[in-house]
Design a protein that fits this description.
Oligomer: heterotrimer
Distance between the termini of chain A: 32 Å
Strand content of chain A: under 5%
Structural class of chain C: alpha+beta
Shape of chain A: globular
Chains: A mainly alpha, B mainly alpha, C alpha+beta
Largest interface: A-C, 49 and 54 residues
Helix content of chain A: 55-70%
């Protein structure tokens, strides 16, 4: 995946599957590029490439079959020693904007890179976290929903 | 549509309805510029534009109070209330274009024109020239040439004088509207100037003063009577990179300097139309949903200005949702246009054809 | 810098009053004195670039970017004027003081309460509950045989409560706030109407209202009441005899016009992004309008000097230019009256560091705080948790009654922010879903709603009586970057309080049973704040409601200050703030200390304007 756009597209495809949010919503956070860069910085080009290549293969093979995609993802990525923790980190990053340091076991086995520390990717990545709209709320300290809106039931869109 | 100089209450209604249209017409351009900025960047520029946008909402509300006070019926859902951008506003001998565009120096220059101080007096208020089909201000029926207001400032000067003429004729009978339709301080406050409930001549004059002075700083000063910096000079601060402070002369602010990052902006499609989104998919759905949500907001405002001022509270919630939806659209690329991002369309509920 | 003055110039002036600390107490005293024509200097140990929205927003951005979002996360680490931070608190081993954080924890109980050393003080992170104390709270000794009586009563303070409600901009409705002896003058209205109850509050109220709970021999009938809050809501046109109220928006010395009504940012602590919540900068900004107030930030009052006549002669300061360097200059400041309004810990620390423990040795003693017991459960249905201000309602019915002879009273808050405080939700829920439940995609979204949107958290704020052994001291072994002595805290939770905690846990079980909510409360013995009591274990959190340390009384033998918060030992010294409170009942302290500040300012102004001016050479 030499082309940057291809890498981003592959990252978005995987992210949409992992988060349950469409690519439109993911792009709508403005965080796709910073999250891709954060992942790359924390795990390195090889692991990222392997993750995205495996994801592409799993998605291709499953075509539009959700069950096959689920099985392929669990077998090929989520239960993989190297790729599973990274994929889980990508999920968490999309939901709260925080990169969590990978488990020590992973760091010992694969790589200990300086950017792999628990940190909020940027102030904007905090406010753009998907967790808050998921629960019909706003990130604490930003995007308040307006005076008195809290008196009504929440607007929750559960898939 | 043409206007004649205000001689009847019906004339005044027509003028005030146009005033509401004008005040609203500035809001989509200001919001588009605001939303195009990258989040948590350009804090100073963001605040300056945001404050003006909030005050345009105040002006819109004041215009509604004025219209209600003289027995009119505000309707933000009327056909044509929301202009098609780019729209044209008068600027002396020529019109200028106002569009929904990304934050840039050019965009701010346009905003300066919108808020430009009034220049002409008396008959100099009008200027004869060709009229654009996209002009927001109707011409003036003077039985002869196409006459136009020199600028928005002149338009408001005519509203103010017309109001005074009618008040001199009719006295308090002019203010025959139901006071329950007035929006008061309980439901509207923002720190950006005070809402005025219009019930008599004095309060009508006060409301007019806020609308006209807050924009242009009437009388050649940069601050209005309440010590508020006029919008024109607020925007000018962005080009000059420095805040005004009391005592300053127009053009030479001496307050604290600040940085503007003109690059931290999503390159949104200028003057986006619904027609620009033909390709089926989530982006198109989002843009149409956005436009409908904006329409619902205008419907809510119409209800609020029709005796339900408490609805302004949920309307503020609508604004926050509108911003969120717009931001999502703006961060998505425009299909088929490299280096251009999508932009929201402010059409409201008006019937929409997509060919 | 908000002030147009430098240290050299300030040092050359003999002010009418020198106020140490720019929090709510100091700000109110400064504003009140200046509005009476007096000249005031306020010194603040912490930073505060300027009174502007831009300055405020740097705090907000720092908060957004902070991985640990504790209540001081918005404020930079400043070794020159450090502050306690809750992540610094460690589980204590008996006999081993912990000096990890600024506050030396001497035990036996490790306290996670904090305060904030920036311009505006701890109102820069307070939540904004603005509760009056109950009349019976002022008479704990005579009514219930516990603690101390105040030298004044509710009726003495009532007019000042009204001033405080104006200054802080309180949103509440009189009908909701009239309970357990609290009275208002006829026709009184709060400045703004009460904030609406959250959807969560309404679900709780639907089943809970009318439930009877017995505490000892007292039967308490529960109801969910809106909480009075210093937060902009809908102005009440009937306020002040029909004059209405104009809410105070964001603080700024140049025009930006941000701020306004509460938007429900659910972030009152640590930082309201739109300044709908009161902070002391609003009062400071108003005080500057008088032209008679100077403010010096990054200026530490390092030593109080007493002359031969027992009067304070001057206060030494250290002024630093940068929070990243200990470089500083020193000098002395003079005034006719000295007002220490730092906060109970810093007031006591400064007095003790100046060698002024009081003629009766009581400075620093009788430290109080509320003991917080948190209990949490999952509601049987989606409750829309995580929206609103942090708390919109509470239960006031366990605050009053004869049971107070036997154990502490308590006040319950219903938390709109869910389990954030006890469990670190929603982050911990997300991590558990992804890392442990192996959820991804739509399952994560559904799981988050299921785990978070049903959360109910009740905080029980349990009262604590003054005990001389709960105290702040200083110790030459512990100093900060500028060589100032750090506060050493010795603190334990009395039986009276712990019996109240045990009762609170029982009440919470009853409430959850009544709601059909799944009780998920658990207390880990390895966690900080764990306390055993009669075979049960609890985690007790600090309330950040520091009080005591210079307690008020009727006699110089058993108190530090008189009813005017004037030092018994030094007639031109006032120790102002919650440190003067002889008891704190079950009210968050801010509204009461604000009322006391108005009362004291009135007294100081009278003293200064009726006594001949003495000019000390400067």
């Amino acid at each position: 995946m030499a082309d940057d756009n291809d890498v981003l597209a592959a990252f978005l495809t995987l992210s949409a599957t992992l988060t349950g949010y469409s690519q439109f919503r993911l792009l709508g956070t403005g965080q796709a590029e910073p999250y891709l860069a954060t992942t790359r910085g924390a795990v390195g080009d090889d692991v990222l490439d392997q993750l995205l290549t495996t994801s592409a293969a799993v998605h291709d093979k499953a075509a539009d079959n959700e069950e096959a995609l689920d099985r392929g993802l669990r077998a090929g990525i989520l239960s993989d020693d190297k790729l599973g923790p990274v994929a889980r980190n990508v999920i968490k990053m999309w939901f709260v904007g925080t990169w969590y340091q990978l488990p020590q076991e992973w760091r010992d086995a694969h790589a200990t890179r300086e950017p792999d520390v628990t940190h909020v990717v940027s102030p904007a990545s905090y406010t753009e976290g998907l967790l808050w709209p998921t629960i019909g709320a706003n990130p604490p300290g930003a995007k308040g929903q307006g005076y008195g809106t809290w008196a009504s039931p929440p607007l929750i869109d559960v898939p | 549509m043409t206007l004649r100089r205000i001689t009847t209450v019906e004339d005044l209604h027509a003028y005030l309805h146009i005033a509401m249209q004008l005040e609203h017409a500035t809001i989509p351009p200001y919001l588009t510029a605001l939303y195009s900025m990258h989040p948590t960047t350009n804090a100073d520029a963001y605040r300056v534009i945001r404050v003006v946008a909030v005050e345009e909402m105040l002006h819109l509300t004041l215009a509604a109070n004025l219209l209600n006070a003289v027995g009119g019926t505000p309707d933000l859902t009327a056909e044509g209330f929301v202009p098609t951008y780019p729209a044209h506003l008068p600027d002396g001998e020529t019109d200028f274009e106002v569009g929904t565009r990304a934050f840039s120096r050019d965009t701010i220059e346009t905003f300066l024109k919108i808020e430009r101080p009034a220049l002409a007096e008396g008959d100099g208020r009008f200027v004869a020239r060709e009229r654009s089909s996209r002009a927001l201000l109707p011409g003036v029926d003077a039985h002869e040439d196409d006459l136009h207001f020199y600028s928005i400032g002149e338009f408001y000067a005519e509203v103010g004088e017309g109001l005074q003429r009618l008040y001199d004729e009719m006295g308090d009978d002019l203010f025959c509207g139901d006071p329950a339709r007035q929006v008061g301080a309980a439901y509207y406050y923002s720190g950006g100037g005070a809402i005025v409930e219009v019930t008599d001549g004095a309060s009508a004059a006060a409301a007019m003063r806020v609308i006209s002075e807050q924009g242009e700083g009437l009388g050649g000063t940069i601050y209005d009577e309440e010590g508020e910096l006029a919008h024109y000079y607020r925007f000018q601060q962005l080009l000059l990179g420095r805040y005004y402070q009391p005592g300053d002369q127009g053009g030479t602010p001496t307050g604290p300097p600040f940085e503007v990052d003109w690059e931290a902006v999503y390159p949104v499609k200028a003057d986006a139309q619904l027609d620009d989104y033909r390709e089926p998919g989530e982006l198109r759905d989002a843009v149409f949903a956005y436009s409908a949500t904006y329409g619902e907001f205008l419907t809510r405002l119409t209800e609020a200005f029709s005796g339900r001022p408490d609805l302004l509270l949920p309307a503020v919630g609508d604004m926050f949702r509108i911003k969120e939806l717009a931001s999502q659209i703006i961060r998505n690329p425009m299909p088929g246009a490299a280096g251009v991002n999508a932009a929201p369309v402010f059409r409201g509920l008006a019937p929409v054809e997509v060919s | 810098m908000p002030a147009q003055i430098d240290h050299a110039e300030a040092a050359s002036i003999v002010y009418d009053a020198l106020v140490v600390g720019s929090g709510v107490s100091g700000a109110i005293v400064a504003r009140s004195l200046a509005e009476r024509g007096l000249r005031v200097l306020v010194v603040e140990a912490g930073p505060g670039e300027e009174l502007s929205v831009a300055d405020y927003e740097t705090y907000l951005t720092r908060f957004y970017g902070a991985a640990a979002k504790d209540n001081n996360a918005a404020y930079e680490v400043n070794p020159n004027a450090p502050m306690p931070r809750s992540p610094d608190v460690r589980r204590l081993q008996p006999g081993h003081p912990d000096s990890t954080g600024y506050l030396i924890q001497n035990g036996p109980y490790e306290m996670d309460s904090t305060y904030t050393r920036v311009l505006g003080g701890t109102t820069m992170h307070w939540e904004g509950k603005a509760l009056r104390m109950l009349p019976e709270d002022f008479q704990m000794r005579s009514r219930f045989g516990q603690g101390r009586d105040w030298p004044i009563g509710y009726d003495d303070l009532e007019p000042y409560y009204r001033k405080a409600e104006f200054e802080l901009g309180v949103s509440a409705d009189v009908a909701d706030q009239t309970f357990y002896g609290i009275t208002f003058p006829p026709d009184y209205e709060f400045p703004m109407h009460g904030l609406p109850k959250s959807y969560l509050d309404q679900l709780v109220a639907r089943d809970l209202d009318g439930t009877e709970i017995r505490l000892e021999d007292t039967t308490c009938t529960l109801s969910v009441r809106p909480t009075a809050q210093a937060r902009n809501g809908v102005p009440n046109p009937a306020y002040d005899g029909g004059k209405g109220y104009v809410p105070v928006g964001a603080v700024s010395t140049h025009q930006v016009d941000e701020g306004g009504r509460c938007q429900g940012n659910i972030n009152c602590v640590p930082l309201c992004p739109v300044q709908a919540k009161y902070n002391a900068r609003k009062t400071l900004a108003a005080s500057l309008q008088t032209g008679r107030v100077d403010i010096l930030t990054q200026t530490i009052a390092s030593r109080v000097h007493v002359g031969e006549d027992g009067q304070i002669s001057h206060i030494d300061y250290q002024a630093y230019g940068s929070t990243t360097s200990p470089e500083h200059v020193t000098g002395s400041l003079r005034a006719r009256m000295y007002v220490l309004a730092a906060n109970p810990v810093e007031n006591a620390r400064l007095m003790l560091a100046s060698g002024l423990p009081g003629s009766n040795g009581l400075v620093g003693r009788n430290l109080m705080d509320h003991a917080y017991l948190l209990t949490w459960a999952l509601m049987p249905e989606i409750a829309g948790t995580m929206r609103g201000s942090q708390c919109t309602s509470g239960i006031e019915d366990l605050r009053a009654g004869e049971f107070r002879r036997r154990h502490a009273a308590m006040r319950v808050s219903i938390h709109n922010d869910g389990w954030a405080w006890p469990t670190g939700s929603p982050y911990t829920d997300l991590i558990a879903l992804v890392d442990d439940a192996n959820a991804y995609g739509a399952a994560v979204r559904r799981g988050l709603v299921d785990r978070i949107s049903r959360q109910l958290m009740l905080s029980f704020m349990v009262e604590l009586m003054p005990e001389p052994s709960n105290r702040i001291t200083v110790d030459g072994r512990y100093i900060d970057a500028l060589g100032n002595l750090r506060p050493v805290l010795s603190y334990s939770l009395p039986e009276y309080t712990m019996d109240g905690v045990a009762a609170a846990r029982r009440v919470s079980r009853r409430i959850f049973q009544r709601l059909g909510a799944e009780d998920r409360t658990s207390y880990d013995p390895l966690d900080t704040g764990y306390v055993g009591h009669q075979g049960e274990g609890y985690i007790i959190r600090g309330g950040n409601h520091w009080a005591g340390t210079h307690i008020m009384g009727e006699s110089s033998h058993d108190s530090v200050v008189d009813v005017h918060q004037r030092s018994w030992d030094h007639p031109n010294l006032y120790l102002v703030g919650p440190g003067s409170m002889p008891s704190i009942g079950t009210s968050n302290t801010t509204l009461t200390l604000a009322a006391m500040s108005f009362m004291t300012a009135e007294h100081i102004a009278t003293e200064l304007t009726t006594r001949p001016t003495v000019t000390i050479g400067g």
